[in-house]
């Protein structure tokens, strides 16, 4: 299962509304030892993402769900606000940011990366 966006994913993402602010919902399922590895990625993310206007809104570990279908429990949730979809895409393509993406990939066996916008 893919855990990282592809070029085609980013192209479709940008086609919707490139200058619109977006909050990215990350649902994360860790590989064995992945929690510590993902925490390393979060530290890297904090060091490299600020110049793109990214702001971590929330990062927390999941627990036993109260209501969920089988297989819908997630190990962690991350919400990151970006000033625009373009800012997110620029960050993902940035060489300095890219030096730490292996930490994310190695940490995860499954992920959902869902763009969201605030409801009126």
TrEMBL record:
Matching Pfam families: DUF1330
Residues annotated as domain DUF1330: 35-109
Top-rank lineage group of the source organism: Bacteria
Xref: PANTHER family: DUF1330 DOMAIN-CONTAINING PROTEIN (PTHR40257:SF1), PTHR40257
Descriptive protein name: DUF1330 domain-containing protein
Species this protein is from: Pseudonocardia humida
């Amino acid at each position: 299962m893919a855990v990282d966006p592809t070029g085609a994913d980013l192209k479709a993402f940008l086609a919707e509304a490139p200058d619109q602010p977006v909050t990215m919902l990350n649902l994360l399922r860790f590989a064995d030892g992945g929690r510590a590895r993902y925490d390393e990625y979060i530290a890297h993310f904090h060091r490299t993402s600020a110049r793109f206007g990214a702001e971590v809104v929330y990062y927390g570990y999941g627990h036993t769900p109260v209501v969920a279908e089988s297989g819908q429990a997630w190990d962690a949730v991350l919400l990151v606000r970006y000033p625009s979809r373009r800012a997110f895409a620029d960050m993902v393509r940035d060489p300095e940011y890219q030096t730490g993406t292996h930490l994310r990939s190695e940490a995860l066996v499954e992920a959902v990366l869902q763009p969201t916008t605030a409801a009126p």
